[in-house]
Amino acid sequence: MYTRKNSRNLTGEERQRFVGAVLELKRRGEYDDFVRMHIEFYVTDGQDGLRAAHMTPSFFPWHRRYLLEFERALQRVDPAVTVPYWDWTADDSPAAALWSDDFLGGNGQGPDQRVMTGPFAYESGHWKINSGVTDREYLTRNFGRPSAPIALPTRDELAWAMDEPVYDTAPWNSTVTSGFRNRLEGWLSEGAERWRNHNRVHRWVGGHMLGASSPNDPVFWLHHSFIDLLWDRWRRRHPKAVYQPSNRLHPDDPQHGRVISLDEPMPPWDVRPSELLDHSRLYRYAP
Questions:
Q1: What's the DSSP call for residue 249?
Q2: What is the pLDDT of residues 206-239, one digit of tens each?
């Protein structure tokens, strides 16, 4: 078993080793394979076919396995490396150590929002964007979206999701107004704030963190490590809650063939959500 640490508690050496392993995956071409995988399985409500990664109950187990695959790739480079987590309710400003020059680098600059500092700046010569929705070869960010300001989620906003005792509800997509999955994933548009929790973090970082190609920004992994930790905390808080839907949807259900139930396989690994409910034999989270 190994430990995923809070990013703010990493030593200088741990930061260096994480960055070094990420850059090596990029050099080998493996990193872009992960980006393409996320693009492939980012299927929205309005698209045809199975929704495995987003706007669906399997959001948490799919990303847990995805994160594990990435972490295992990092550990093939350096066995000591794990994916740290970013607690965005605490490290909630561009001044956080997360964005230092020796870790993830800072905000985008100028009208093109190009990241100019840190190891993932295009000028470093090691980070070229090869898969995405634009033809820009450089990483972009737009912290806080100054043209229409947005803040990172607060502890109270996160608690609103964590207090929900039901995992998910029909119609099992982005439109459901209750259930932990969508409260944390954040497609709810009630009230003044359209984006909630997970989605708001993507919006706050901006640039390449918007949309299906968001793993182009390495902060994606730290964000989803925290999402994975929050799922774990929610399950401990609500021990009687179960993954929903627990059974395969009836053929007459409009979401049949689009939603993965507890014991149906998730692509591309052919692993079931029921196999990913407990991670305690693989890793733990440090406070």
A1: P
A2: 999 998 999 999 999 999 999 999 999 999 999 9
Q: How far apart are the first and last CA of the chain?
A: 16
12-28 vs 59-77: helix axis angle to the nearest 10? 90
pLDDT of residue 105: 98
| Torsion sign (Cα): 57, 61, 62, 67 | positive
**Which contiguous run of DSSP H or E holds residue 68?**
helix 59-77
What is the sign of the dihedral through the CA atoms of 267, 271, 272 and 275? negative
- Which amino acid makes up residue 240? K
What is the band of 194 on the pLDDT scale with cuts at 50, 70, 90? confident
Q: Alpha-carbon torsion 254, 260, 264, 269, what sign?
A: positive
Q: Are 127 and 139 in contact (CB under 8 A)?
A: yes
Phi, psi for 276 (deg, rounded to 5): -120, 15
The SS3 assignment for 161 reads helix
The class (CATH top level) of 2-285 is mainly alpha
Q: Is 101 exposed, middle or buried (0-12, 13-18, 19+ CB in 10 A)?
A: exposed
How many residues in total does the chain contain? Answer: 287
Q: Are 7 and 85 contacting, i.e. CB atoms less than 8 angstroms apart?
A: yes
8 A C-beta contact, residue 72 and residue 83: no
**Domain locations along the chain:** 2-285
